[in-house]
Amino acid sequence: MDDIVKAALKKWPNVPACHGWLGLDARGDWYMRDDRVQAAGPFPQVKGSRLLHEKLVDFIHRNYLPDEHGAWFFQNGPQRVYVELEAAPLVLGVQRAAAGFVLHAHTGREAGPVRSAWLDENGRLFLDTEAGFGLVRSMDMDAAADAVTSGEWQPQTVRFEDLPVRFGYRLSPQRT
Fold first, then answer.
1. What is the pTM of this model?
2. Are β-strands 18-24 and 79-85 bridged in parallel, bridged antiparallel, or unpaired?
3. Alpha carbon distance 48, 37 (integer Å)
4. Which residue, 171, 4, 174, is CA-closest to 75?
């Protein structure tokens, strides 16, 4: 977390959380969801405006965390902005390397080794990694297929609806 964010938390410790305004899609893109977009429907059916400002996206990545209930949020100064997730808290990129495969989360952080692999009813590949649980980006499925074919990852089948409970995250954090 950025030092400026930590300082803001100390200065204003009781700022109410924000819900519904930020979404993370299955490609690792962030979407701003104003009142009009939220009224039009839930995420990801109605996504909102894709965030393209590189410095803002980097700031979100550095301050993106889960709470004690598995709800992911972006700490924006003193305010928690809870994130609507399309599929998983992380979106993972897979690259071939000399010694196997390297994984990076959409935040740019290395994801570390794969603990388990899961294939849902829609053919999407999810990985439980040292950095957390994530969906493999569709554009990296070719490299991921090589990891599966080589036996490095052995996906088990799972229903998508069972993943949040199994891996302790919430797709749509609600106000409490």
1. 0.91
2. parallel
3. 6
4. 4
